[in-house]
Structure formats: C-alpha cells, structure tokens
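User:
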Amino acid sequence: MSRHLEATIESFPIAGKFTISRGSKTEADVITCMIHENGRSGRGECVPYKRYGETVEGVIADIRSIAEAIRDGLTREELQARMKPGAARNAVDCALWDLEAKRTGRRVADMIGASNSKPFVTAFTLSLGEPEAMAAEARKNANRPLLKIKLGTDNDEVRLRAVREAAPDSRIIVDANEGWTEDNLTHHMAIAAETNVSLIEQPLPAGRDAALTGIRHLVSVCADESVHATKDLESLRDRYDAVNIKLDKTGGLTEALAMKEEAQRLGFAVMIGCMVGSSLAMAPAVLLAQDADYADLDGPLLLARDRPGGLRYEGSLVYPPEASLWG
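Assistant: Predicted structure:
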C-alpha cells in the first residue's frame, strides 16, 4: 500500500451575505483532504467553525498531523480513537470512505444501506436581517416547501410574522442559534406555534438549556450546538425532541451513522444539517439523510459558485451524489 495525504484551504464566495445571530460572512472557507493510494484518490471536505474553537489553520494542522498514520494504513475505525470529533476528523473520515469506494468499486450508498437513495427536499435558509428584508427573501422563495429562518434576537416575533405572511404555504424551521433567553423563550415559542412553525432549533445556549425541561413544547425543539456526538444524546432526552446531526460536529460519516441510529432508538426526530460548504461537504450527508425527518443541506445553494460537478438541485430537491463527486 502506498498512501499519502494532502490538505488544502479553499474559499467559496457566498451569494450576498450569510448572517446568523453571532455574525455575518461573505465567504465559506473550507478544507479539502485528499488521500491518494495507488493512483486513486479519496476526497473529504470540512468547514472549521469558530463557535467550537476551530480555526482554518488549526484544523489543517490537525489533518496534516496524521499524515504518517495514513501512510501506514490508518483505518476509519482507528481514526475514531486517534482524532476527536470535529471538522478535521470529518474531512479525513470522508476521504477514507471515498477512497474505499474507489478501491472496491462499491458505492458508499451500498455500504451504508442506502442503495435506494432518492432525491428529497432540503430546507432553504434565510439569513437573519431586518423584518422587511427577511419578508422579501421569503416572498422570493415562497415556492419552496421548507424554509429555515435564522432568528435569535429580542424581537423575533415581528420577523417571524413577516416571514409567515410572505410565505404562507411553506413549512418553517426557526433556528435561533442560541440567541433566545429564558425570559423570552415562552413568548417566542408561543408565537412560533401561532405561526405554524414545524421546528425550533437551539433556542437557548448550549449548557444553559435546562429551562427546556420545565416548559410545554408547543413546537418541537431541536438540539444543534448542544449535541455533537453519540455520547451526548442520553442527557438531552428531557430537553429536546430532535437532534441536528452534522458531519463537522460528529467528525465524519462513521460517527454520524452511529449517532443517527442511536438517536432514532432513543425516540429523537433527526435532522441532517450542514455548515456552509460546497457539494463535496454535502455529498455524504445526502446519503445519511435518506430516512431523516428533516434535511438542511442547502450549503451549495447559498454559494455564488460551487465545485465543478457538484450536487444536482432542482428547486429544493437535492439528488444523491454522482460517483465523480464523492462516494
């Protein structure tokens, strides 16, 4: 076996600006990991996330630190113990899956029991903004069946009502990105119920979400920042109704598969989500999301340009990846 690893930083411009309660950005900085073996190459992409203490420089250093182990034949199973969950392990894990598919001639979909993969509806995200601007974006996308709106302010009622009026027929997911408080939680949840919101994502800060145990959930509540890997699930059963599984949090498809199985066993609804990245980052998540309750895999739709040969989107329908992209 002759293997070597390389990791590179790439930047994809965002169409306009992507804004959540913690700030805005105009570019998606990603890291692409490639593992080469005997003329074949497996690829994986990750998105370092500042909220979790990650930087582009730190993540690429973490990836490159295991180059020798990769050269010596490190397996996906060994990788789980060698690296912690997070963006760096995600890129390497997905590259190993892709390489295995190329080496064996089997699609990853077949390996994970998703051989009948079909297109499905993904949420389309509307950035946080002034109510009038959010309503205008909602009106432009009112034909999409599922919208995810970024909130997380003291006055989200007016934003939510404006979006609902502009998109009366769309299902809506509200993502507060830890921006609500114990003082306004009940009020905002009541407004969400009144405006027929389907799901509220991470209303309170991770580690300060105990208040969710003491109130009636008028709308189902989904954990995002509060849940990273399988070990986190049990402690959240009295607070959340659903969990958002992202490969950049779990550290790759390997852990994400285990986490999804356990989440479903425990009775959680499952969302498969993403950071803002290219089609290469979405591809394994599209396979993971085949039987999920919600999918939020619109990263490429938010970019001004995607990778060549990216995923196929038709409106809000996303199709499984071609072998030339991943898996």
